Amino acid sequence: MTAEPQNYLNGEYTIKSWLLTTDHKRIGLLYLLTILFFFVIAAFAAGLMRLELLTPQGDLVSSDTYNKLFTIHGVMMVWFFLIPSIPSVLGNFLVPLMIGARDVAFPRLNLLSWYLFVLGGFFTFHAVILGGVDTGWTFYTPYSSTYSNSHVTEMALGIFIAGFGSILTGLNFIITIQKMRAPGLTWFRLPLFIWSMFATSIILVLATPVLAITLLLMGVERIWGIGIFNPKLGGDPVLFQHLFWFYSHPAVYIMILPGMGVVSEIIPCFSRKQIFGYKFVAFSSVAIAVIGFLVWGHHMFVSSQSIYAGMAFSLLSFLVSIPSAIKVFNWTATLYRGSISFEAPMLYVLGFIGLFVVGGLTGLFLATLAVDVHVHGTYFVVAHFHYIMVGGMVTAFMAGIHFWWPKITGRLYPEKWAQFSAIILFIGFNLTFFPQFVLGYLGMPRRVHEYAPEFQVYNVLSTAGATILGVGYLLPLIYLLWSLKNGPRADQNPWQAAGLEWKTASPPPEHNFEETPVITEEAYAYPPLTSSQPTPEEPHG
User: Which stretches of 135-185 are DSSP H helices?
Assistant: First the structure.
């Protein structure tokens, strides 16, 4: 019996070796374990909120507890799951592999970014244990900076520290992609996932310091009473919103751009075609990153902003939808007349497209001044945000995990269960959040634990959908863990996919490639399937 080839998983397997590793693949897995911990906390808070909203009366938790629940849910989901999930997990694992490099440019800095993320998460989680925060995840002033009696300072400190980890990750990726590409791998031969990670990294480096400064100013006002945002102290609360949303709207693209990159990898593989309009899809990622910095004011249509500023931000918000639409049209054109197979990654991707389109179109409603004034503080915004972030980004993350799972672990998962999970997740998500569009249009305000009785039927549907959605998230955890020991071994390229990451062993050796690869062909050079060529279905058949 031959020994198993040496790789990053079966090397030195001690806690110390993992905690001090500079291997980008191991760091990606450390991030995966960490964000799953925060996802469970956020999901638990969301489950309690949905149970509370089963009935119009506030009979499960108090109003103060409910405020803390949606703050915990928002903070944990946004800063400790959604933002780091694809960049820090899949990005760390795949970027060097996809460009033919042995590691990232600064391996020790990469490990430091994880430690900063964990340290920030510790402070945030400690604030939750001490009693939580009741401000909402947006920390609007002057309530957060002066009047709240909850643990605002510690939670803000946690986000502040984790933000430095994001900056270091973005800086590392920019230099790695710029300087460490394999010979022959020109910019227009790069995988589109790399384009999306490059655009995301630019946002991380440029936008995250603004959030850090904003939280620092909030802490200065809260601790020392210096008037920055509180009008009673001579401050301006709208200034906080400008600063916060200048970061937080680009942060939406930190979350969704990597997911778009995942989709751009999976669709050509399972339709056996080159991506349609490669350069348009690549430049649309850059366009989203650039225009994303110009639209923050559409969050402030009802915040005393001038009508002229509102019109300008409305126009720019319509403009940012164009590069997103380009991606959707090009993905659809790639699917057209392709040899499509419906494996689990492809099912997740098709679900992503459907959910993202609904989220994007309803975003145009919110970019329209008159409509936004009506639905701004309602569940319409909650539904739109979740269709983009959860229906879009989390579904893309699930697609990416399933697509690269054989490469990450060297094991195959049970395909039928994975397909079933993708379908369950799609059904559960729509049942959870589509009724909330109706609730918002009818006028139910968000962030309340008591509501008018006529809204109950829609809330019951949402809670039932959240139960199904929870099953859709729990199933992959079960069968993916099962596959680590019992799944069939994966060969080097079980999907017959293009890309450098599929030209090395599964799982990859410690330094990725035995020899530096030389690139001589265009990206996504998929030949048409022939009768003798295996289909993507066979590894799981």
Answer: 152-179
